[in-house]
From TrEMBL:
One of its GO terms (molecular function) is FAD diphosphatase activity. Residues 107-230 form the Nudix hydrolase domain. This is Nudix hydrolase domain-containing protein. PANTHER family: NUDIX HYDROLASE 23, NUDIX HYDROLASE 23, CHLOROPLASTIC. InterPro entries: Nudix_hydrolase, NUDIX_hydrolase-like_dom_sf, NUDIX_hydrolase_CS, NUDIX_hydrolase_dom, Nudix_N. Gene3D superfamilies: 2.20.70.10, Nucleoside Triphosphate Pyrophosphohydrolase. Its cofactor is Mg(2+). It holds the Pfam family NUDIX. SUPFAM superfamilies: Nudix. GO terms for cellular component: chloroplast. Keywords: Hydrolase, Magnesium. Belongs to the Nudix hydrolase family.
Amino acid sequence: MLKAVQILCCSSGLTRLTKTRNSSTVKLSTFSTSPRKTLCFNPTRMSSSSSLPGSDPLPKSPTFVSGDVRKIKFCQWCGGPTKHEIPDGEEKLRAICTRCAKIAYQNPKMVVGCLVEHEGKVLLCKRNIQPSHGLWTLPAGYLEVGESAAEGAMRETWEEAGASVEVVSPFAQLDIPLIGQTYVIFLAKLKNLDFAPGPESLECRLFALDEIPFDSLAFSSIYVTLNLYLEDVKKGKIKFHYGTINKRPGSSPSDIRAFSLDYHLQP
Ligand SMILES: [Zn+2]
């Protein structure tokens, strides 16, 4: 169940994914100094009407990150008021409880999901919740404490699509630093054909690869995942992909088209 926000871009105006360099040679580097882009979105056809209703959590400042500690006003342990300082020996601003002195560290969340393959088709769910209500996604949601990433991906697939699946292999890790999320997507196969939408889905369908509704996908991460998968299928070899989805520096926070996939690594 992915209820929180990831609206970096919906696919409505993302018309193509273009490979611009041989990513196999790309090494990790600091984004702020030298982003290495291997895949870029073409935002030229995005229309304002494609904005997702009621789902614009993007920051008001380009330098904002989702872990904005100034939004933490009270201590999660004792309820005391917080102050915002850089603790001794650290470099980042933290919310520190003025009563119990505990520091509220914020760390990214992991979203896990399955790219379910069946006879040349993939399983997608139409969302019945915000954000991105009515748009299509892979079954995915937040990993729970106590389960592995693969277990979480299978659970989410069961919850959202009523589908019993077996994980085949990891397929992609996509980091989204701006909002503090990491997507881990597994390839999976159906154990049987008995699937049906759960409460968070309006509909679940197997789509042939040339029928995937790229004009109505829910999230940039899903758009990227499906495009990488299609590229691999065309090449006849499914690989594991790592990449970082970044908002384009200097772009308007409200421009949900302005993202690129950086540091694309694959074997
Ligand atoms: Zn406290």
